[in-house]
Amino acid sequence: MLRCSGLVRTFGDRVAVDDVGFEIAAGETYGLLGPNGAGKTTTIRMVCGLLERDAGEVTLDGQPVDRHDVATRAGIGFVPQEVALYPDLTARENLRFFGHLYRLRGAELDRRVDEVLEIIGLADRADDAVDAFSGGMKRRLNIGAGLVHRPRLLILDEPTVGVDPQSRNAILENVQALGSEGLAVLYTTHYMEEAERLCDRVGIMDRGRLIAEGTRRELVAQIAEQDHVKLAAAGADLDGFAAACRAEPQVSSADLGASGVDVVVAEGRRFLPRAVELADEHGVELTSIEVTE
Length: 293
Description:
Elements: E1 2-11, E2 14-24, E3 29-33, H1 40-47, E4 55-60, E5 63-64, H2 70-73, E6 76-79, H3 91-101, H4 106-119, H5 135-147, E7 153-157, H6 165-180, E8 184-189, H7 192-198, E9 201-206, E10 209-214, H8 216-224, E11 226-234, H9 238-246, E12 251-256, E13 260-266, H10 268-281, E14 285-292
Parallel strand pairs: 3-8, 3-9, 6-7, 7-8
Antiparallel strand pairs: 1-2, 1-4, 4-5, 9-10, 11-13, 11-14, 12-13
Helix pairs in contact: 3-4, 3-5, 5-6
């Protein structure tokens, strides 16, 4: 279904997304989990063709996704964080408008609008103006706008941000139903409980990198096997030393800390000899090493 590999995007000197790749099968819900600023939104904007990639490839059912390829992009539905609706129109009129953009017409459009209104639980408010809707109802209609053209992949960017608990639960129920109907779903969130409830697999992003990926059970196993290594260090090339540590295959992350470099690595004690070698190569003096298992 969806395959992404080697995605890179920079903004000036800042690397927003760094070599990110993942795959999603039909009927699977895949979560991108991470804090604000981790690179989730930039990643999905590249996936759906709204943002140019500096490097990498995105394919949908084997066809390259390009921002200028309207036909392939029509297989993707995108639900942004911001509510993108016309407040003076009714729910039905909004969905009809978005359906028209994808060339749905006549009885086919009418049937699809009715189907989507049922899916998102707004059939009883179909002919009410959106301006009178609660924030949660607008969010659900926003999802409907991404569904109306029958996409094969639906991308949702943090759709529950800022809604009340009842509306949030309704949105999560909507998303759960989509995967059971065979739709591939890419869902971004910074709420772990949402990822656990909705997603078949989760990729964890931090500072533009995909640092872990798998089912909930697999992620727990990965985290359990990771050690935290604090390398207190001094030298002119700490940035280079951190980057070299980061490039080691068993290292999940290596970031500059207050007194040196903080590394998350599988089997931390086995990594220590290599850390010493890298420090020497970069002219960095290690003053202390602490491993927390």
